[in-house]
Structures are given as C-alpha cells and as structure tokens.
What does this fold into?
Amino acid sequence: PKDMVSGDFYWCAFRNNKKYVVVGDCTGHGVSGGLLSIMGHFYLEEIILEFPEYGSDRILEELKKRTTSSLTNENADSLFDEGMHLSLCIYNETTKELSFSGSYQSLFVVRKGELIELKGDRISIGDDYAAKSGGFKVMKMAMIPNDEVYFSTDGYIDQLNVEGQNTFGRKRFRQLLLDVHGQSIEEKRNN
It folds into this structure.
C-alpha cells in the first residue's frame, strides 16, 4: 500500500473573484509524500481563509513557515528531509491578471504559438534548507483570450522511455506544449 500513496497533488479554490491553483510535488515517496500532500492541502486552505489579501509570494512564504514548523522539533532539528516543490497561480477574474510564484517549479503559458516560461524560485518548502532560504518572488502577467496555462511537476519531464534509459526531457516537453496549443482537452489527452 505504501507504493500506492502519491506525493503529487493539486489544489484549487475560488475566493473573492480569484482562482487559486496549485500543483505540488512532495519530495518524499510513499507515506511521507502522501502526508506532506495532505499537509500542503490543509495549510493552503487555511492560509487563504486567514489571509485573503496575500499574493502568491506571501502564501508560499506562509506555507513554508507552517510546514517547516510542523517538520521540526523544539531544538529546530528537522524530523525528516522531505519537502514540497510547487507552483501557485492566482487568477483575478476582474482584472484578468495572473500571479505566479513557484518553488522549484515553473508555470508555462502558450500565447499565439509562443511558449512563455515563468520560472519558480530555487527554494524548497519544508526541508532543512527551507527555513534558511530567502523569499519568493511574484511574477504577474495580463492574460488575453486563447492563452493556455500549463502546470507540471518534474514527473513528466523525468519520465523514462520504454527502454528505461532516457527521460522525456525538458526540450521535448516544451515542444509538446506548443504542439497541443489550441487543441481541445480530448485531443490533448490523446497526445
């Protein structure tokens, strides 16, 4: 059963004309990854209820603080070396603005056949180094009709081929996003 528990998760919420979307990848496998996924889901819900004015950067800072606190003891020793890498996107339906902050993950936007990558910070959430690292940056962009937004963990890029020797890779992943741009969800599912 421990191999059936996943460390990847997604979380969505809608509050005050804002759509929140998170795609996360917990660095632990099995039970530890699953527990971190539950913790991330719970804390995200709690944070946006407590701090509806927070932007994506401050939400990740608060998530980092709470997760690190939960994973350390009173001597500030880490209970285990696992953490989360995630992408957080807030879309304001009134202003049509997208805000993004990331922890070791990027957000991809395809606009008029061009791929735009918003790169996350090299800051983990919850592990030993998280408490010592700096703050997250926020990137904003005005969205226009027909923009397509893609989230991904490293799982797709690191997927091994049939022979188990080569990964799918970042270059092919980026090309795949361009190739499926404008297709229906059903068509994308079949690619």
